[in-house]
Design brief:
Length: about 300
């Protein structure tokens, strides 16, 4: 199974898992009257929608470049990651709104929470398994949308654990106001995750540079070669979906043969691709003497036939 098939398979598993958990949580929330379980159901529904977005983006990003998208479809994954982050933020605000009404007006929430405890336990176990698979394939493929989906489920694990603990405490103490209070803490936690995912995705959409440590690693590969100079500001690198786009401007002594320059560039490309497996690398060559006072005449105006 190639990496694109793995991405589609794990995205499909996420859809199935989130759909089943959403139905279970909605049923448990209605039966028990628990706002914390209902807030978790809303969270899972946003996860479910996010999983559909992830699957769509994974399918689109795996398509080859075409006339309308000559640089490929990688940004579909970045856009999906951004929307997923917004969904989490929206869900958290809704949970705070509903919980605040329960707290302010002291509305009784709990009827019977044994079913809720069982559903939360199932949710924790299921999400641990599915999120670990999402993160594994996300690391292998450098997929921002799979990573965002995994973060969705990881927030669901912690929030479900919080709700589970609260339901146990309510069962022991009978203090039902704990239910909306716990829901507020769940909302605050997932709000932070939503902002984090959106921030990461929007950086890619706006073509932020790769992290400085990655730029330094690329520079070290180039400078390891004698008589090869990386031009000042001669490196540009960004991430588009699962792909790293890297542009280099390298300078060679003017007496270096084209064949030798080409061989060195091939070696540099191979080393970078070993470091960043899914990379698109473009290298522009210049002679070291490339300036207006070039004594070799390599920068003189050239006649072009009409």
């Amino acid at each position: 199974m190639d990496i694109n098939q793995k991405k589609k398979a794990v995205a499909s598993l996420s859809i199935l898992s989130n759909t089943v958990l959403s139905v279970l949580k909605i049923a448990a929330g209605i039966i028990s009257g628990s706002i914390s379980i209902i807030s978790e159901a809303i969270h899972s529904m946003s996860d479910c929608l996010a999983s559909f977005l992830t699957y769509f983006s994974v399918v689109k990003s795996s398509e080859p470049a075409d006339a309308d998208h000559p640089y490929g479809h990688g940004k579909f994954e970045d856009m999906a990651g951004f929307i997923e982050g917004l969904l989490i933020i929206f869900a958290s605000f809704y949970i705070v709104y509903e919980s605040s009404k329960k707290i302010i007006f002291a509305i009784p929430t709990e009827k019977e929470n044994t079913l809720g405890i069982a559903v939360m336990l199932i949710a924790v176990i299921s999400n641990i398994i599915v999120s670990s698979m999402l993160f594994k394939i996300a690391r292998e493929s450098n997929s921002v949308s799979l990573y965002a989906d995994g973060e969705h489920l990881r927030t669901d694990i912690y929030s479900s654990l919080g709700v589970l603990l609260g339901l146990f405490l309510i069962k022991i103490t009978g203090y039902t106001l704990l239910d909306p209070i716990i829901a507020v803490f769940v909302a605050i936690y997932i709000l932070n995750t939503g902002f984090s995912i959106s921030k990461k995705a929007i950086k890619r959409l706006l073509d932020y540079s790769l992290p400085e440590e990655d730029i330094e690693k690329i520079k070290r590969i180039v400078t390891a070669y004698d008589n090869v100079v990386l031009k000042e500001n001669g490196i540009k690198a960004r991430q588009v979906g699962p792909t790293n786009d890297i542009d280099l401007i390298l300078q060679f002594p003017s007496d270096t043969s084209i064949c030798k320059c080409h061989k060195i560039c091939d070696e540099i490309e191979k080393q970078i691709q070993t470091l960043y497996k899914n990379s698109s690398i473009s290298i522009h060559l210049e002679p070291l003497c490339y300036n207006n006072n070039c004594s070799s005449g390599c920068n003189k105006n050239m006649l072009v036939k009409n």
